[in-house]
Write a structure and sequence with these properties.
The structure is a homodimer.
Chain A (H helix, E strand, L loop, with lengths): L1 E7 L1 H4 L7 H11 L3 E8 L3 H14 L2 E5 L10 H8 L4 E3 L1 H13 L6 H5 L2 E3 L3 E3 L8 E6 L2 E6 L3 H19 L4 E10 L3 H7 L1 H5 L6 E7 L2 E11 L1 H18 L4 E4 L4 H12 L3 E5 L5 H7 L8 E7 L2 H8 L3 H7 L4 H15 L3 E7 L14 E7 L4 E7 L4 H26 L1
Parallel strand pairs in A: 1-2, 1-3, 3-8, 13-14, 13-15
Antiparallel strand pairs in A: 4-5, 6-7, 7-8, 9-11, 9-12, 10-11, 15-16, 16-17
Helix pairs in contact in A: 2-7, 11-16
Chain lengths: 417, 417
Amino acid sequence: MKASILTIGDEILIGQIVDTNSASIARHLNNAGIVVWERTSVGDQREQITEAVKRAMNQSDVVILTGGLGPTKDDITKKTLAELFGSRLVCDQTVADHVRRMLEARGIEYNRLNRDQALVPACCTVLFNAHGTAPGMWFEQNGKVVVSLPGVPFEMEHLMTDEVMPRLKARFSLRQIVHRTLITAGLAESMLAEKIADWENALPPYLHLAYLPAPGVVRLRLSAYEVEGESVSHEIDRQFAALQRIIPRYVLGFERATMQEIVHNLLTRRRQTLATAESCTGGSIAARFTAIPGASAYFLCGVVAYSNESKSNLLGVDPETIACRGAVSEEVARQMAEGARRTAGADYAVATTGIAGPAGGTEQKPVGTVWMAVAGPHRTVTLLKQCGTDRGQIIDRASAFALALLRDEIERDAAGE
Amino acid sequence: MKASILTIGDEILIGQIVDTNSASIARHLNNAGIVVWERTSVGDQREQITEAVKRAMNQSDVVILTGGLGPTKDDITKKTLAELFGSRLVCDQTVADHVRRMLEARGIEYNRLNRDQALVPACCTVLFNAHGTAPGMWFEQNGKVVVSLPGVPFEMEHLMTDEVMPRLKARFSLRQIVHRTLITAGLAESMLAEKIADWENALPPYLHLAYLPAPGVVRLRLSAYEVEGESVSHEIDRQFAALQRIIPRYVLGFERATMQEIVHNLLTRRRQTLATAESCTGGSIAARFTAIPGASAYFLCGVVAYSNESKSNLLGVDPETIACRGAVSEEVARQMAEGARRTAGADYAVATTGIAGPAGGTEQKPVGTVWMAVAGPHRTVTLLKQCGTDRGQIIDRASAFALALLRDEIERDAAGE
């Protein structure tokens, strides 16, 4: 079973938005055993849309489209699909009632443009969109399925989950796709590949290995397409276990686990608590933890101490130290972590202080210089890292290094018990 | 001049990563007057890559590829392009020396896999990648240009800026594309469209209008393709000025301005300072400001007060109030904002306290309930909002509402002076 994904909108082609819909649709399809063959984006133009849908229908069994379903003139997907399938637009009363109710609740006038949202090609099955005014549409022709969804990510996501996937599973008999990921840290891609070459060469032919490098980690993904899921999963378990014996020190975790999730799990399991004290990372580390459901079980508080005064007032950093060593210094990082740990009454605190740029760099401390510290029950450790030249990159990398340092300390303490 | 963008990698098709490269390449091309006709992603398979490149060369003058250039077996783009252009792989000594130096600096062994990074198709022009080990490659055939770049966003970005765009500008005589965006807030898309229908209908035919709705805002984009940039820019200025006269209360700003950038500009211009006190938004508001270069001019500090104790210790919230009214209450939001303003000695402080879920909701205060407050020089205002049902969405929306409240207060104070 093959699928193609087609996202529609000039805003994608001019780079005004990043297309996140394609990735989440791809995950839905993969989880159900449907292979995504190609992903395409075209503009809001009749010929482009028509040609892209036809091509996708030639190459795949299922085509999922998003975008171009808004109430305004520039959105033409619905009209184009009606033409393509030789169908006229008719009013769907359920959709019309829903749109009116939805707008009334939000105090928005029900006008001609909104009424047009209830027009759908007569030949399609309407997929009810509880979260928006543009309905989804399901077309079938010559055994192929074409589904058109609104481009608003939140609405698309609900329709994929509640309507599209159940219908695809009922309509087709699907085999399984298995993707499993092992995350390594501490080895460059080329060194990792050399170390595991024998293991890689001995993999069964139906398992495909991919290397996915990112700052600080290399993910190894094993994929098998259209197989019996359970036995393949067991085989991957065996292969990953063998791999862990080859590179025991370098395995960070599995699947989509991020460093913050690993720390989250460690702290939750050990019923320990955390505080953060951030300067250059500006709240990013706190935000990474608090984005995870259940963070309130261990995350007590965070301080974003941007000004020198706040470093002293909120975290008890000695103003003398700031004056002598500078705000970006090992000693200030240490005092920030220890101050946050003390103030919050937390088991661990992590701190960052650095120069995120673009201004503020000096010869001794260029942009990208970041000191980090972790204060724990037994000791405080510090680390100096050069985190790059771009502000966003520096914030990301400094957050990643600080989280890794925090994890190392928690694991060290756990091992010592 | 038309271009196609092709991103290569199984990780895109299975939804393991979101393809951000396409959007940034599209922005580069658009800025130089090159129309992006289509954007496609295919897997790491020889036939798929070959077919996609051929198709892109048929439809466009320029094809930009990213991905599949790593040192490991699963990356096959380079080999495939060599075959497609009938060229053999040869060693590029400059690249080889660069790779060896780069790895030495990072303490990584120079092995066979890395040596292969210096192999390039004999027919291509090598684009030197100062930031990574995989070089870019520039091919020409029958007047068409095909460029292959590494998939690491940071490396791709530098190569686009330093190598690809200057060469494209030198190689082709380009016209201009103009995109300009006006951001509205406070009107639903359909109401906005009705209010500005006369203006929209009177637009000159070479200006294309697009509506881009997002939570809380609708962006209006005017685009003109392959025109004389300066005169079109003036015409768009006139059109936007006319539009502002039609909906004066609803214009938020221009271009890619975000609410935090608008507040950033207001505070910078007025030389005023800011502190944040976040519970449910968990550092997101602080992180939004501190991501902007120059934030240290006004951003003094932020507190992520997740535990009740930290709300009292760090922000001076009365424990009685928390006990009587609950941590998610108007009074606690008010005390958080006022406490942060006082502690930091800031002109303004913004606070959030709410239930981000998935657990913690009650009948009176369901998941998504968020109280926010802004304390300023003259008064403190509070606002209650239902921010949705999904944790990530609640954090985003609560941050957006709190920022809008902050902006309103600063503008109100500015107008009162």
